[in-house]
Write a structure and sequence with these properties.
FAD/NAD(P)-binding domain, 18 helices, 3 domains, alpha/beta, 18 strands, binds iron/sulfur cluster, five-stranded parallel sheet, binds flavin-adenine dinucleotide, Fumarate Reductase Iron-sulfur Protein, Chain B, domain 2
Length: 485
């Protein structure tokens, strides 16, 4: 177990960031790692609780007190083995997870929680730098062939688990590069793309075959899938929500995902579709206050925007936990990202009524109104416009970061798959209405988190293995999903 009373001796210490002025000049990651001694102290803050609530917060069921203890003792290799027992890609979650485990950490009741996510990142980075994370091809092979469609975290996790079970796995990806939203959604300054390449190289060396630029159901006939014994659909939830008000079609109103994808493609010299969208010297308004909106803030500032403004239709959350979400639940609470810190005027309870244009159809402004939410017990909250609050905001570029309504139906239509009431691919224990076709990640649960995509990929792999072989040695699910992430 950890150091007795370590949490009393040491305060939480987080990584520092490179100064804003410097980091917004490039698209590199900007965190400054803690030294080994400081990390050991952070590991020793863990109380090795009798009931580790951190487990309940983590959808992967990561063995958190166990790896915290190993870090405290300087046993980094053992820590890496423990971490990889439940998580295929801790280098993604260690950088990008909102860390529901930390929100559920028992220490969080009286003090700052254990810095679990940062410990996770350092374990995996140490594992790579020491050469401990190496390909582990299966010792025996089965005669089963499996197609995984989509190379996001769900598809990659499913592929690695199925390959470990000895099956022959081919991953199909329609983009020119692998990783799903990790590649062309999340900006390079949050996840450098070499981190994905480093892991994919291991998966390839383990025997997984990757086919890029293959859009199944479009430039690859569905009938060709007949040669596979099982199929796992991990195509994500990619249909973007729009804002159907006057002027939406005007030049200068752009979907956030087009903006973010173009940026990363340009950074790596990949061909870019359509006209180049630049925020340079522009007054930019980003509609939508989630992760995508925040990534647009960071990218716009790096482009050299004249001003960056963010609108959110919901009320400003409290700085601390809302009373409605006490510990250990996932908190309703104001989230200020590193991108927000780089410069952004944030506004809540604003609704857009119209995109204002000039005679050439170019965007010149945004007409908004202030709103409030009326709550009545037992009814859905009602959006009310406040009288006399109309306002015009000058702007040259609007980025729509309004979320996603669900997965595309190209595959479900052609394969004859059922859709659930939330427009996602319907599955029971990851199995669709066609027995040898499975689905996982955002395609099954709607737009979510990387940690959930990895968890679902692992779970779906086990379900496929049981379907094909009647039993499975692949590990079972962690105990997450209890606390509302
Ligand atoms: C801008 C943005 C920022 C985000 N930031 C975070 C964050 O900081 N932390 C976090 O935890 N989560 C974040 N998320 C959410 C997270 O990225 C997703 O939940 C996660 O990537 C889902 O993984 P997935 O594998 O299910 O799908 P995806 O990552 O969407 O991957 C699906 C893949 O399938 C491919 N595909 C689809 N159809 C076909 C087909 N017919 N043939 C071949 N290939 C196909 C797609 O091209 C894509 O590569 C963010 C999302 C966005 C949009
Ligand atoms: S809840 Fe916090 S203190 Fe307790 S075991 Fe988990 S990480 Fe350690």
């Amino acid at each position: 177990m950890g150091k007795l009373g370590g949490f009393k001796e040491y305060s939480r210490q987080d990584e520092n960031n490179i100064a804003v002025k410097e980091r917004i000049n490039n698209y590199k990651e900007f965190t400054i790692p803690l030294k080994e001694l400081a990390l050991k102290k952070q590991g020793s803050r863990c109380m090795d609780c009798g009931i580790p609530f951190c487990h309940s917060g983590c959808p992967l069921g990561n063995l958190i007190p166990d790896f915290n203890d190993m870090v405290h003792k300087g046993e980094w290799k053992k820590a890496s083995e423990i971490l990889h027992a439940t998580n295929n890609f801790p280098e993604f979650t260690g950088r990008l997870c909102p860390a529901p485990c930390e929100k559920a950490c028992v220490l969080g009741i009286i003090d700052n929680p254990v810095s679990i996510e940062n410990i996770e990142k350092n374990i995996v980075e140490r594992g790579f730098s020491e050469g401990w994370i190496v390909p582990q091809p299966p010792k025996t092979k089965t005669d089963k062939r499996i197609a995984v469609i989509g190379s996001g975290p769900a598809g990659l996790a499913a592929a690695q688990q199925l390959n470990r079970a000895g099956h022959s796995v081919t991953v199909f990806e329609r983009d020119d590069a692998l990783g799903g939203l990790l590649r062309y959604g999340i900006p390079n300054f949050k996840l450098e793309k070499e981190i994905i390449d480093r892991r994919v190289a291991i998966l390839k060396a383990e025997g997984i075959i990757f086919k890029r630029n293959v859009n199944v159901g479009v430039n690859y006939k569905i009938s060709k899938l007949n040669k596979f014994d099982a199929i796992v659909l991990c195509g994500g939830a990619t249909i973007r929500r729009s804002l159907p008000v006057k002027g939406i079609e005007s030049k200068g109103v752009v979907q956030a995902m087009d903006f973010l994808t173009q940026q990363t493609k340009q950074l790596f010299g990949s061909p870019v579709e359509g006209e180049i969208i630049s925020a340079k010297d522009k007054h930019v308004i980003i509609i939508g206050g989630g992760d995508t909106g925040s990534d647009c803030v960071g990218t716009s500032n790096r482009h050299g925007a004249r001003s960056v403004t963010n609108f959110e239709i919901m009320p400003k959350p409290p700085i601390g936990r809302s009373e409605t979400t006490p510990w250990p639940f996932w908190p309703l609470q104001l989230k200020t990202s590193s991108s927000h810190e780089e410069g952004c005027d944030r506004n809540w309870l604003i609704n857009t009524k119209e995109f204002v244009t000039n005679k050439k159809g170019e965007l010149t402004g945004l007409k908004t109104v202030e709103v409030e939410w009326k709550l009545k017990p037992g009814e859905r909250p009602q959006l009310i416009e406040k009288p006399n609050t109309k306002k015009i905001w000058d702007c040259d570029l609007v980025l729509l970061a309004l979320g996603f309504t669900g997965p595309e139906t190209t595959l479900s239509d052609q394969l004859g798959l059922e859709i659930d009431t939330r427009n996602n691919y319907k599955a029971t224990n990851y199995q669709t209405n066609i027995p040898h076709i499975f689905t996982a990640g955002d395609m099954r649960r709607g737009q979510s988190l990387i940690v959930w995509a990895i968890s679902e990929g692992r779970e779906a792999a086990r379900a496929v293995d049981v379907f094909l072989m009647s039993e499975s040695n692949l590990p079972t699910k962690g105990n997450g999903d209890l606390l509302g992430t």
